[in-house]
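Input record (one chain):
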Amino acid sequence: MVLKRTGFSLLTLFTISILIFVGVEALPGDTAEAILGQGATPENVAALRHELKLDMPLHTRYISWLGDLAQGDLGNSLSNGRPVSEVIGWRFENTLILAFSAAIVSIPLAIVLGLVCALYQNSWLDRFLSTTTLSAISLPEFFVAYLLIYIFVVQLGLFPSVAILKPDMALSEMVNVLVLPCLTLTLVVLAHMMRMTRATIIGVLNSPYIEMARLKGVRKPKIIFRHALPNALAPIINVVVMDLAWLVVGVVVVEVVFVYPGLGQLLVDSVSKRDIPVVQSSGLIFACTYIFLNLTADILSILSNPKLRKPK
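The corresponding structure, as predicted from the sequence alone:
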């Protein structure tokens, strides 16, 4: 089953690489003209198109690009001539810092809140938490981000509106910069993880063996933490890893709003500059990350479920 999921993931990645390549090629305008400017002569444009291999057929360029990727060559940026791997490297590191910072806050909080909602099902606390988190997830990310900026920057003046990381920043300064982007991502993903945890725990608490434990007089905390929670881990782990995948690839809007120097901000800037190698590589990195984390969620779900581990 793991090998089947891995093969399907590789096939999905191959399909996405085709979509990324064709999608970038479908962008309006001519890359050579965008680089040289409107005053370029047709001869100069033709020479640059030949240099960039833009005069070759689409399938030939795709095969060449795929071959370079297989050798670890992402090409050079058209805007500054630097290797794409250098341009992307520290940007992707910043994106991972932001995503995992949000995950450190949102995952434990979602599990605890989901457990509380399950224990006090249909109470005012359950309704309040469910309504609040569902309201947050229903709003667009940019709206949540601007709302937080208005409250914590404009009104209270507690945090900076621009999240710029510097190599020599102290830990306290970095935390101060990351608070609003992390809070935005946390509010967006919290409801999904919390609702899944709540539903899973409630389903386990209604199981016959839990009823038997209650009849035997087992204390409620022991029922929750020794019997219910371990048996609910499989779906909870699956949704946590899935949301972690979303955190890594879903930061584009948040990075743009807070001018955060991550891969999402670089992707948007590169699209406007028609920097094709950077756009293609950034999109493929996001796709690889999402597929890898989804595959990890599948494998963890298989390993945590005895029924799936048993060969048929």
